[in-house]
Amino acid sequence: MLFININRELIATLLPTRDDNCDKLGFGKLTCICGSYDMPGAAVLSVGGALRSGVGLVTLASVENVCQSVNYAYPGAVLKALPLSNDGGIEPIFVKDFIAKTCLTGYKAILFGCGIGITEGGRAALDSLIKLCTRPLVIDADGLNLLAEDISLLERAACPIILTPHERELKRLLTAAKLDSAKDFAKKYNVTLVSKGAVTQIYGEKCYILNQPNSALAKGGSGDILAGLIAGLLAQGISPADAAAVGVYIHSQAGMLAAQMHTARAALVTDILDEIGVAFAEIEEDI
Questions:
Q1: Is 12 exposed, middle or buried (CB count within 10 Å of its CB: 0-12, 13-18, 19+)?
Q2: Burial class (CB in 10 A: 0-12, 13-18, 19+), 222
């Protein structure tokens, strides 16, 4: 298999252009179904990554305390507070109703799974998204672990799907699918698969590779930022493989910049968020 090397020159050709005459709807709408009572930070970070991508409008659907956390961090996000279940997640019937009636109307992409927890609401949301969604869908974190419980869901998908597993999540998916490689998984289920690690490989319509190890990214919440970035780029109309490539590169560059400022050891995931704008600015110099 031939991989396309991800570098600055390539990303400059993939980055979506911005029309200064557009309003927010011209830059896409994204729905994020993320977070649970015990994991509000995952929603904050994924929404932050999405907003930094340049998407015009981000809606978060989650339980009340998660919505409050996101509102405090990002008052520009639209919030849909859904009832809390006893397991700390969203009440299943309400999340299914939200997906069927609201979340698929006018939105260009969906992000699911960051901090959602292994909850009944998470299972109900995943099932509904797979069956009903026709827009590009990014599944990350606990969304991947829920998917591994019933991998056959992917056989019924009607939308483009990006999966963003780290090594342990990928192993669970491969075990569930009884396959040996990420390449075979992406081909069998017709998904774009981002295999995250020191060397990140993207399998899909095009295959990309980024060999830029950086331990500043090896922090809890880093993957949530990446998932938000990729989903936000999808909402702006980039193809799944290209959105994954741009997101992976910008995330990596932001991590490098954070490490230069704070060292890889001391850099926080919020420092990575803060450097995303600088990472984009470097690319925009080449456009």
A1: middle
A2: buried
pTM for this model (two decimals): 0.98
Query: pLDDT truncated to tens, each residue of the chain (287 aa)?
Result: 799 999 999 999 999 889 999 999 999 999 999 999 999 999 999 999 999 999 999 999 999 999 999 999 999 999 999 999 999 999 999 999 999 987 778 899 999 999 999 999 999 999 999 999 999 999 999 999 999 999 999 999 999 999 999 999 999 999 999 999 999 999 999 999 999 999 999 999 999 999 999 999 999 999 999 999 999 999 999 999 999 999 999 999 999 999 999 999 999 999 999 999 999 999 998 76
- Report the SS3 class of residue 58: strand
Token representation of residue 37: 């009572």
Q: Where are the domains of the chain?
A: 23-206+217-239
What CATH architecture is 23-206+217-239? 3-Layer(aba) Sandwich (3.40)
Type of residue at 35 = G
Beta-sheet pairing, 29-33 with 109-112: parallel
